[in-house]
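Anyone else keep sequences and structure tokens together like this?

Example one:
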Amino acid sequence: MKLSFSKQDEQFRAEVAAWLQANLCGEYETIRWRGGPGDEHMYVEERKAWERKLHEGGWTCIGWPEAHGGRGASIEQQVIFNEEYARAGGPGRIGHIGETLAGPTIIAFGSDQQQQRFLPGILRGEEFWCQGYSEPSAGSDLANVKTRASFDSDTQQWKISGQKVWTSLAHESQYCFVIARTDPDSVGHKGLGFFLLAMDQAGVDVRPIEQLTGTSEFNEVFFDEARCGANDIVGLPGDGWKVAMGLLGFERGVSTLGQQMLFQNELNEIVALAKRNGAARDPALRARIADAHMGLRIMRYNSMRMLSGGVDDGALQKSAMIYKLYWASWHRNLGKLAMDVLGDESEILEAAPYQLGRLQSMYLFTRSDTIYGGTNQIQRNIIAERALGMPREPRG
């Protein structure tokens, strides 16, 4: 694992910092530090405009190969970009799912036609994606999906029917990548397909789910014979599990750097608050702030260890299997720390219409961290069985 940066890398850092300083101002000043967990619903149109601005400067998809419009940036340079983005107060990325999940998956597993069709919109910051994985009976157990895909030979189209849930930013997305069962007689991870589906069609119904925060960042999505072309399946019918696991590898890979950027912004806000209201004079709170700082640095170093292997097909290294459990528990604790630093103010809403403050929203949002994306209990099983090679848990 590399922990230092070359002279060339530091020149790249200066380039990133200078561009952000020159551009994250004026009309974009209001979105600095915004768009993190519990705050994703804020300044949506402004953040979409910011995605296009990033593209104009050549700062979207920097880790993609140059052949696909990226910069071919090294892991070190991607780390640097995210560090400087956080330091400048860059807003939460609406293009995150397309840039770090859909795009790399299409590059790794998709056809030339799919790459030419879908990658440019992501690169330009004009087309946004959501993830059609979880279902009411298939949350942590992704292999239990019931959404069906059947091929209509008359129209040469796939018809998708079923329900997805907890679909982040589905109401803002043009496309969704969907795991669906192509073989109705299959069970488990066999007989699945990975589809690229347009959201703006009659067969797609997006219904917001109101959260504890009173906002609706994620949704239920119902598919009623939604259509996609014969060429809009990634790989072959039955390859869905392989592609889906490759995508989860990307989720545990470079995409973690953007997530840590949001975490750093939150921690910075908590530290600044503690200095203003005197909470920093409390030795116990000071120790917890220091512990949060150390935990975030450990998270960064483990990410660099994961990424140093140079895997570009999404394959999960053993070091990546601890990541979800680690960050979810850390972030949940950060939410509690934020409330304790706020003190009595954590239980007060300022004035009508009595909207939650940013740290209050963040705290409520973090209650879900250890559940979505695979519960802590499921993550411990994955670590035990797949990383440590321990006997599998008995199954009925």
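And example two:
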Amino acid sequence: MSEGAEQKVYLKDTENVLKLNDSIYYNTWKDYLYNLLLHNYFFPDTAYKLIGFTKDNHIVYAVVQQSYVAITANTDLNQVKEFLTLNGFENNRNNDYINPELGIILEDLHDENVLTRNEVLYFIDTVFYLTEPFWIR
């Protein structure tokens, strides 16, 4: 279906996509797995299911399954900002956010990574990072 800097997306069936992610945005695979857990916690309606790992051209990819979201409208990034602000996140630049209380950074929330279906936002491609305050709590 598509390909971004960090992953390749394939339509599995009418209800699911498969994503191959090489964890390029993360220092370690552990950080990528934390990202999956945080995404699933905050956005359970588009939760990732880790299927396993594969290797292609000497590159290791995580294989995850996610629900397919059919859009009904273009995403208004002001609505994304409002939603995240109401949930304790602050917009720190462009489409990136931070929750200083939780110690969580949430990035890459442009209109291709947050979709709108029936006036509901669906976060399908998030990039979470943990900061020092997260580990102190």
